[in-house]
Design a protein that fits this description.
The chain is α+β, with helices and mostly antiparallel strands. Helix content is 39%, strand content 20%. A hairpin with a 2-residue loop joins β3 (88-93) and β4.
Length: 124
């Protein structure tokens, strides 16, 4: 029995699926922690000025935001140094801290400072 002919494009589908899964896995290995607490006026300001747009930006896609209440510290972050100052932004990649920004400097300064943090990501 003769094998059906499969065009080159269809032969590459498994490889494309594998590559996309690898990209998704590596993207999820990087995240931006936002350490916050109730009553933090600067946290509220960040959410008003940046929060809604952040997930739609290149930065937000590279390092999705994870909000962390400093008074309810998750067990999976026990290896990350805790913080009293809020907001504090901690960039982590593969469960390791890459960079930290204490405080919110306003929307005009936040983006360049975040870009500087992201430039420190390892090139795995």
């Amino acid at each position: 029995m003769k094998k059906p002919h499969i065009s080159g494009a269809f032969r590459r589908i498994p490889a494309m699926i594998f590559a996309s899964q690898m990209w998704i896995g590596s993207a999820l290995a990087t995240e931006l922690l936002m350490l916050e607490q109730k009553g933090c006026a600067w946290c509220v300001r960040w959410h008003q000025e940046i929060g809604e747009a952040y997930p739609n930006t290149d930065q937000g896609k590279l390092a999705p935001l994870r909000r962390v209440d400093i008074h309810e510290w998750p067990e999976d972050l026990d290896h990350i140094t805790r913080e009293r100052v809020t907001p504090t932004f901690v960039l982590i990649s593969n469960n390791r801290e890459v960079a930290r920004l204490r405080g919110y400097p306003g929307d005009h300064f936040f983006w360049p400072m975040l870009d500087e943090m992201l430039s420190q990501l390892p090139n795995d």
